[in-house]
């Protein structure tokens, strides 16, 4: 939590500066005089201006945004000898380019961030899966414990290599969002015995990778050997004679396949409000031992679950995913395009009621994610910056008054009709846009509060 505020402010500063610099740089290139470049709104707390005719750079009290103020006859009188530098007197294509430059700058920042993530590389869990949930889509489709996902496809023709587990999660998110089946190419852990299965994700009622969709999917977590880690001193596991490093072979005569299935067996060892004794067979230093383990009951989310008070499962097998210069840049660009497309589709589904408005996040949730990503290291924080930068670009391109996309719609009307939008219509649209933005902000803050209070 301590990391959230500084990480959020740093991310916000980077995103605002890049966005406004896009407007500023293209405005200058088009010969528009820029009066002020401000990070934040409200009272100015810092300013710098090289000389009276230069652009004034300021830092203002409220850091939730920024602006570039240009010379414009609609805002203040302009001397006759400077009218050629006024924004409103520039050709339509130049005005549109200046407005579009902000979101484009954010998209370019996202490409840079995702490319940097690919270049730096990161340790990720290999795409080897544990036991799928009984009766879930994954099990019915034919997935088995220890399956390695080699590649995925949305059409069964064009395949994408799956290098690590996050790649699979991303492909699942895309398939569910688009309401399409996902083809998977599987093998055993060593890469032998390849086979293809199809996950019918198009049959899911939800178009979000939420808790309900995950339960129906029943996809196994990263494969982890059923080996015990650190035990709580005096806990149920230690009292039963279990030791760190024990490999669990079976529980109550049922062979233990992986750590996830073992944890599930432990949790369900409850009947009539009492923990059930369990007969464990473990391998320890070349010996096979039989032990009676009586878990301890705990309250978790209103349920009484059994626990052995020990770390269950070895660390999943990891792989360093790192790309070269061109491959990393290509991956960064493709990732930016995919995230932008998915974000735009999500906005559309929220508008039509096909997706929940709970997907809309505000500054509190973003600050929380910023802190979490920063605590995980540079690569995670860069990935977070890329995701938020794409979202900011897409949001700004929405055809809403007060946003860059709304101004582009004005210019589209001007280009098609040969005349600008009238002042009366501009005022009405600005009021409507302000109302919609206030609603969105209120909804986002409401979602933030319900998340923080654990009501989502």
UniProtKB/TrEMBL annotation:
EC number: 3.4.24.-
Record flagged with keyword Membrane: yes
GO molecular function terms noted in the UniProt entry: metallopeptidase activity
Membrane-spanning ranges: 96-120, 376-398
Bilayer topology: Multi-pass membrane protein
Localisation: Membrane
Keyword terms, alphabetized: Hydrolase, Membrane, Metal-binding, Metalloprotease, Protease, Transmembrane, Transmembrane helix, Zinc
Residue intervals of the PDZ domain: 206-262
Cofactor: Zn(2+)
SMART domains documented for this protein: PDZ
Pfam families: PDZ_6, Peptidase_M50
InterPro entries: PDZ, PDZ_6, PDZ_sf, Pept_M50_Zn, Peptidase_M50
Keyword Hydrolase attached: yes
Class in the EC hierarchy, top level: hydrolase
Family: Belongs to the peptidase M50B family.
Classification via NCBIfam families: RIP metalloprotease RseP (TIGR00054)
The name this protein goes by in its record: Zinc metalloprotease
Organism: Roseateles aquae
Gene: rseP
